[in-house]
Amino acid sequence: MRVLIEADELAALLDDVTLLDVRWKLGGPPxxxxxxxxxxxxxxxxxxxxxxxxxxxxxxxxxxxxxxxxLQASARRWGVRxxxxxxxxxATGNTAAARAWWLLRWAGVPDVRLLDGGLAAWxxxxxxxxxxxxxxxxxLRGGALPLVELDDVPKLAERGVLLDARAGERYRGExxxxxxxxxxxxxxxxxxxxxxxxxxxxxxxxxxxxxRFAALGADGSRLVGVYCGSGVxxxxxxxxxxxxxxxxxxxxxxxxxxSNHEHLPVATA
Length: 269
Prior knowledge:
Elements: E1 4-5, H1 7-13, E2 18-21, H2 32-37, E3 44-45, H3 48-51, H4 68-77, E4 86-89, H5 97-106, E5 112-115, H6 153-159, E6 161-164, H7 168-171, E7 189-190, H8 206-215, E8 224-227, H9 233-243, E9 249-250, H10 254-258
Parallel strand pairs: 1-5, 2-3, 2-4, 4-5, 6-7, 6-8, 8-9
Protein name: Sulfurtransferase
Keywords: Repeat, Transferase
Domain Rhodanese: 13-131, 156-267
């Protein structure tokens, strides 16, 4: 599974891909304003909060997966068509765009890639229009990538490798700015998403990523699962693992779901 596309390759294929701008920041503001200030020509703006997530009770987590029907309607709005590659990017090292990458791959779209380095890697002209493409015809099916439900997380942590993609201080319980309890899921190993990237915002080379994840026990010999705060940056870690040649399952509810179930334990050591 090829995960990345380089900016020069994208420039040569620009008329032959569906391009998604997924700029988003935790706590906002929404990225549409930044999109209108300048985006790669032809890119459609994707709203992560409303199109790449559902919303329910706190015990569901902050960004539950959208229904397949809702995701298909959004993907068709973006112009996603059968047989046409999709490329997603953002301006934060693909930490948000990876959510679109994971969802579309999970939903059965075979060729979805991330622009390595995101918007900063693009040296061509920028557009300021609000792109409304011809509606797509994609038929989504779901289940093409593995995921882990709440009840199965403890077993995975015990028998496999469970990675926590949040910042180390949140994993250790030193700070918790969002969720009701501080700490991590017992048995999880700290693997901050930021360490997937080089200083220029591009993913580390495959060999470097393999070495990083092997040191955490994620060498492909056991089932690997990943969570973060709400299932967004965990998708970035799954992309990094895929680059390294390691398959991994997403726990979509992540710590925002886990910590809202008061009977579930939380560790700080």
